[in-house]
Amino acid sequence: MICCKRSIEASAVKATKIARKPSAISIRDHLIQKKIGLADTEVIGVVTLVYDHRVHHLSDLLADMQHKAHVAVNASLHIHLDEHNCLEVIVIRGRGDKVHEIAGKLIATKGVQNGKLVTTTPEIHQ
Q1: pLDDT, mean of residues 23-33
Q2: d(Cα 6, Cα 60) in Å, to the nearest integer?
Q3: Distance between CA 25 and CA 18 in Å, rounded?
Q4: Cα(86)–Cα(114) distance, integer angstroms
Q5: Least-confidence region, from 27-31, 73-77, 111-115
Q6: How many other CB atoms are found less than 10 A from the CB of residue 94?
Q7: CA Rg, the chain, in Å?
Q8: Is pLDDT at 112 greater than 90 in this prediction?
Q9: pLDDT for 100-110, tens place per residue?
Q10: Residue 46 class from Cβ within 10 Å (0-12 exposed, 13-18 middle, 19+ buried)?
């Protein structure tokens, strides 16, 4: 029993030490987020929306907003989650300020239950 307890403790100490070390991924993500903060930077965004398709004309409104956006809508994926709820995944590309603007409008649309924007940029060089 003591042997197993020491092994568990050693594993916990090792995991803590690993968690404290800055990883290449977190450093890269920091650089990307810093660059995305600039309004004129080209940004790639993935917008996820969960909504009830029974809300009157909501699907049409979301599609119309995408067509009128001042960004490139590269792809859209529509998934039926259950009898009433849908997941929409939209990949958009454009200036950072415009990507955030359209994503905010889509997420704030009446009838959207949940939404999120995840952004990245094709280059992180300063």
Answers
A1: 69
A2: 60
A3: 13
A4: 11
A5: 27-31
A6: 20
A7: 21
A8: yes
A9: 999 999 999 99
A10: middle
CA gap 39, 44 in Å, rounded: 13
CB atoms closer than 10 angstroms to residue 12: 10
CA distance 120 to 94: 11
Candidate ranges 16-25, 35-44, 92-101; pick with highest mean pLDDT: 92-101
Superfamily of domain 2-120: ACT-like. Chain A, domain 2 (3.30.70.1150)
What is each CA distance from 28 to 92, 119, 123, in whole angstroms? 21, 13, 11
CB proximity list for 118: less than 8 A, separation 6 or greater: 45, 46, 48
pLDDT per residue as tens digits for the range 50-101: 999 999 999 999 999 999 999 999 999 999 999 999 999 999 999 988 999 9
Distance (Å, whole) CA 83 – CA 51? 12
Length of the chain: 126
